[in-house]
Design a protein that fits this description.
Shape: globular
Order of helices and strands: EHEHEHEEHEEEHHEHHH
Distance between the termini: 30 Å
Largest sheet: 9 strands, mixed
Helix content: 25-40%
Structural class: alpha/beta
Strand content: 15-25%
Number of helices: 9
Number of strands: 9
Length: 256
């Protein structure tokens, strides 16, 4: 099986090397690495070119887009792998066997997807400090706040072709809507791998401010309506409360 990893980026020169190198060091896999740049103004494209000249598995484009999910859709359209994963430009894989683990899991023809855990980190003086540990748990209903973490979610391309890509009318909740559509509406087959797949930089567009935080909740509710689904009362609060223990669990994680 071949795996395609997509990294979208825009003015990401400070973090893109870490992301790229974490992908390139993955072992025992047939890899296609797609870098989708949004016409960066800094040195991001120069960095991409530097790696692309050395590694034939890298394909890239640099052009204006209509936001991060439009860029992700471009990556999915370009991908030729049997399995697709998305790694943000300021994130990295936790070890060199993550993609090997994913492919081994998805050899099961009955599975359409798999997911692991993520560790949110804060970076200080080039050192990653654990901040929040998202332990996914086995697949269950979204009605009580559960969802898999998108940066640790891998999907067979055939599922994208069957159930569709990211909707651009869902704002910062486009990844939530996609997984809601896949799991809650279409009941895709999936498996949780109890392993930290991704170190994710703490922050993000949906939690950048109180206004953005409120808007993300509105977008979450709207995602249910768009799929003809009825959210459980208190679903938004369940989703919030599920995060609280994650800050405590992170204190017990040690990054090598």
């Amino acid at each position: 099986m071949k795996i395609s990893v997509i990294t979208i980026c825009f003015n990401s020169s400070k973090t893109i090397r870490r992301a790229i190198e974490s992908v390139l060091k993955q072992k025992n896999i047939d890899l296609e690495y797609l870098l989708i740049d949004g016409a960066s103004k800094d040195t991001t494209v120069e960095i991409i070119k530097e790696y692309a000249e050395k590694y034939p598995c890298i394909k890239w484009i640099s052009e204006k887009d209509n936001g991060i999910y439009d860029a992700m859709n471009k990556g999915v359209a370009m991908a030729s792998g049997d399995v697709i994963g998305i790694l943000n430009s300021d994130d990295c894989y936790a070890s060199d066997d993550i993609l090997e683990t994913v492919l081994e899991t998805l050899k099961d023809e009955k599975l359409e997807s798999c997911f692991g855990d993520i560790l949110y980190v804060k970076t200080s003086e080039n050192k990653m400090i654990p901040y929040r540990y998202w332990r996914s748990g086995k697949p269950r209903t979204f009605k009580f706040g559960w969802m898999p973490p998108h940066p640790a979610f891998f999907l067979k391309k055939s599922a994208y072709q069957k159930y569709g890509n990211f909707r651009l009318d869902c704002g910062t909740a486009a990844d939530y809507e996609l997984m809601l559509r896949y799991f809650e509406k279409n009941h895709i087959s999936s498996k949780w791998v109890p392993k930290i797949f991704t170190y994710m930089e703490a922050g993000g567009a949906s939690g950048a401010s109180i206004v953005a935080y409120k808007k993300s909740h509105i977008n979450d509710k709207d995602a249910w309506k768009k799929n003809g689904l009825k959210a459980a009362p208190g679903m938004i609060w369940f989703k919030k409360f599920r995060k609280l223990p994650q800050f405590i669990l992170a204190k017990f994680i040690r990054i090598k």
